[in-house]
Design a protein that fits this description.
Elements: E1 4-15, E2 25-41, E3 46-51, E4 56-61, H1 72-86, E5 94-100, H2 110-126, H3 132-146, H4 154-161, E6 166-171, E7 177-181, E8 186-192, H5 203-218, H6 228-233, H7 240-265, H8 268-286, H9 291-301, E9 306-312, E10 319-325, H10 329-344, E11 349-353
Helix pairs in contact: 1-2, 1-3, 2-3, 2-4, 3-4, 5-7, 7-8, 9-10
The protein binds alpha-D-galactopyranose.
The site of alpha-D-galactopyranose (GLA) has 11 residues, from helix 4.
């Protein structure tokens, strides 16, 4: 039996928090860490999946692609198979093994990396291809229907377009993707706060519902139609909580516009300030930060070479993203670690990264 493999990098949301499902703008990038799916065809209709790192396995049949109650990782693969079936791709029995060095639950989108890697693997195994936007939709449907998270298209789109040394400017209204060179004078540090974020717990879906409520009350099809000025003029139409949710989302798309302009000019100090503003807005308006994440941000601000920092991804735990001056990185890390230990009472996991993906 011929063995094939598909790989997908994790992604980081650099700026543009909870804007994707509001048809807004996001700056994102791929990270070095990736998920790999390998496997081969079977001659029957059975499905055998293995998660190497978790030392777990799952088995079933093509006749039943319904979600598995206690193996979340298997659900993502089943969701992909269901999406392909609905698009008329003939399915076969398979043996499949997943291995990954992407930390799970740290906000680097290990789940979208799995659904994209599975699709890349199956495209090679069964010799078909789908346009990136269709692949992204299959990944998204898998999250919606098999994990119950009403996420947007950010994670799979960023993973599918990840490019070395470039940030991706993603527009979720036009679905256009632009890659913008990222200078060598700055690097990113990703720090996991130690509290696993779990988007399955309903907070994420609640935030999405609040944004939809804001759009309804403002009489627009999505928050992308609203400028910061217009939102302020319409403040009286919205209950305070809904207004603050909308203020975050509208502000984020506006900030992505400004930050992209500064990035193209090479103004990394200006770019960093916008990351700081984004975190403040998450903390106060969207309320998707938690104290551990705030401690990482405050520690960052006290460290030499800090340009900007914010929580990244859904929130409620997971990771923070820090933009640091490349030539001060070592000093930054030693102060940052000490400050974090002092505040949290324990050390944290972090890694230095540059935008990664295809060259
Ligand atoms: C999660 C979701 C994305 C996006 C971010 C927040 O990562 O999967 O679709 O909404 O949160 O920006």
């Amino acid at each position: 039996m011929n063995t094939h493999q598909g790989t997908a990098h994790g992604r980081v949301e650099v700026l543009g928090n909870h804007t994707d499902y509001n048809q807004g703008l996001v700056l994102a990038m791929g990270v070095e860490y990736a998920t790999e799916v390998t496997g081969s065809n079977r001659t029957d209709e059975r499905l055998f999946f293995k998660a190497k790192d978790l030392k777990e396995s799952w088995e079933g049949s093509l006749q039943d692609l319904s979600p598995s109650p206690n193996k979340m990782w298997a659900n993502y693969v089943l969701g992909v198979l269901q999406g392909l079936k609905e698009r008329g791709i003939p399915l076969k029995g398979i043996n499949l093994e997943i291995s990954s060095n992407l930390p799970m639950g740290a906000g680097l989108s290990s789940s979208a990396a799995l659904t994209v890697a599975t699709q890349r693997f199956l495209q090679k195994l069964w010799n078909f291809s789908l346009p990136p936007i269709e692949m992204a939709k299959i990944s998204q449907e898998s999250e919606h229907r098999y994990a119950g998270v009403k996420c947007g298209l950010l994670d799979p789109m960023a993973i599918l377009h990840a490019k070395k040394d470039h940030l991706l400017l993603l527009d979720f209204r036009s679905l256009k993707v632009e890659s913008v060179p990222f200078p060598s004078t700055a690097n990113f540090i990703i720090a996991a706060c130690g509290e696993k974020h779990s988007l399955v717990d309903g907070e994420y879906n609640e935030r999405r519902a609040s944004c939809e409520e804001a759009s309804r009350l403002l009489g627009v099809s999505s928050l992308r139609e609203v400028t910061p000025d217009r939102l302020l003029e319409s403040k009286v139409k919205l209950p305070d909580r809904i207004y603050r949710r909308a203020l975050h989302v509208v502000g984020e798309t506006h900030r992505v516009g400004k930050a992209s302009f500064l990035l193209k000019k090479g103004d990394m100090a200006g770019f960093g300030k916008i990351l700081d503003e984004s975190h403040e807005s998450s903390r106060i308006n969207f309320e998707n930060s938690i104290p551990a994440l705030d401690h990482l941000i405050e520690s960052s601000k006290k460290s030499p070479g800090h340009l900007g920092a914010r929580l990244t991804g859904g929130g409620f735990g997971g990771s923070t993203l820090h933009l640091v001056q490349a030539n001060q990185q070592t000093d930054f890390l030693s102060t940052f670690q000490k400050e974090v230990e002092r505040r949290l009472g324990h050390s944290i996991e972090f890694f230095v990264t540059r935008p990664s993906g295809v060259a």
